[in-house]
Amino acid sequence: QVHFSAFASVLDMAAQRAAKVAAHTIAVPSAVKGNFVYADRESLDVEDVREMVVQDARAATRPHDIHRDGFCMVSGVPTHVVDPYDKLEVERVYYKEVEELLKKKLGAKRVIPFDHIVRNKARLAEEVAATGNQSGSTPFLSGVASIVHNDYTVRSGYSRAKQLLTPHSTSETIEKALSGRFAIVNVWRPLATVVKDPLAMLSWELTQPEDVQTIKLVYTHREGEVYRVFPSDRHQWSYWSHMDPSEVLLFKTFDSETAPGVAQFALHSAFAMSGQSETPERQSIEVRTLVFFDDDAVDLAPAFRAPHLTPSPDSDSRVSLVERKIMPQVPVSTERSSRSFAALAEQSRTGPIRLLNASTATWEPVPTSTPQISLHASHDISPEGG
Hints:
Layout: H1 7-22, E1 31-39, E2 47-56, E3 71-74, H2 87-106, E4 110-120, H3 121-131, E5 141-142, E6 148-150, H4 156-165, H5 171-179, E7 182-190, E8 199-202, E9 212-219, E10 223-229, E11 237-239, E12 248-255, E13 267-270, E14 272-273, E15 283-292, H6 317-320, E16 321-326, H7 338-347, E17 354-357, E18 362-365, E19 375-377
Parallel strand pairs: 2-11, 4-5
Antiparallel strand pairs: 1-2, 1-14, 3-12, 4-15, 6-19, 7-12, 7-15, 8-11, 8-13, 9-10, 9-16, 17-18
């Protein structure tokens, strides 16, 4: 079991290491090789594993920018969390820290954390062995996700935001907020220095619509969509070697802004480095957030509470997910642009994303729009989806 009980000393050691890296007194390899698990074009049950060269972003000549590339790394980020496996402490302490970080780094006016996952494969295996099933394990505990994917599609990012906000605000207020600029941003932090299965990112400029395929996720109470990803010779991956708990990775999984030069998403994936040791397993925590950039959204949904922390089907999506489906997809222009991704959303549409109305026991459509996304990966697809 891993706690942040000695987090001050961990942060201090991390800061010392970062200073040595910056002063070039610690060697930083320019690249490593690793295996990436891509999707097969015909089956959900077949994987296409490719060995890729992964550049170490610490040696990059140009810092990565979340608005241009879709992701960035922030160093020297403290936290007061003691036990990252305590969901209520994470909500009470870490969610507020995440809000302040995104407001400061992105210029956001309103940040709403709505979900989090703690990844520790070894701890999960121990708890499942002790309880007999995953539902008896620590809430929101998962293994490393190692299939290249994205949490949302160009339409499900919008519908998920609407689903989340509907219980907490009026339709008029929600529509006004979603008509302005908003994004879904993941905040990823290691709980210990990463020596196995690090997280790799792909810049927006290297991504094409033909790289992705829509997967519908059917839960007991709602439907969502994610992207899985096909291999491409264009893909040139980057990662940060030996990330430690003082460092945080920010990446977009959706952005409604379609201006030229603004990243709509960043493909990302955990990968197995060639020659990596079997232990220690990677341990990390990630928080998904709705991020609003307009002044009108400052007071949006003031009483919001993440649905997975309340008694609801969202309290454990590992259990409420009942089916995954490959959605039909019509080929679109290979031109990389926001417009082509919007066309991908329209042409792959086979019906509205639906939400279960508990009072009438009927499935109702969620209005859709044409915002954008961010792709990533790890060992299994995290069952969230738009």
